[in-house]
Specification:
By secondary structure, the chain is mostly helical. The chain has one domain: Single alpha-helices involved in coiled-coils or other helix-helix interfaces (Up-down Bundle), CATH 1.20.5.780. It is built from 3 helices and 2 strands. The protein has helices at residues 21-33, 38-75, 82-95; strands at 2-3, 9-10. Helix 1 (21-33) crosses helix 2 (38-75). It is elongated. The termini are far apart.
């Protein structure tokens, strides 16, 4: 779907699917309840589902990457350097610990 200069939508692709009579009835009922056409209801619903699937995948991917980085930091800790020692010393002085 691309934006039309006048603000409307220009649809150049077609997506077809077969549904059961019960599925079609359910979709038509839901669209009617929202005062929308079946096409608008289906397109909006599919776009929202697609965005959620992508976001979930990206969160999962990030979570796996973060978990690996955390485990790697535990298994292979970086050596303590002067900057870290100074930071710990200043923290202890500030908090009295």
């Amino acid at each position: 779907m691309t934006a039309h200069p006048a603000g409307g939508r220009v649809r150049g692709e077609r997506l077809e699917t077969r549904v059961t009579a019960d599925q079609k009835s359910l979709i038509e009922h839901a669209a009617a309840l929202q005062g929308r056409t079946v096409t608008d209801f289906v397109l909006t619903s599919l776009q929202e589902a697609a965005r959620r699937a992508i976001e979930e995948h990206e969160r999962l991917e990030l979570s796996v990457r973060d978990s690996r980085a955390f485990v790697d930091a535990l298994v292979n800790p970086k050596p303590v350097n002067d900057r870290l020692r100074d930071t710990v010393r200043r923290y202890r002085q500030a908090t009295g610990i």
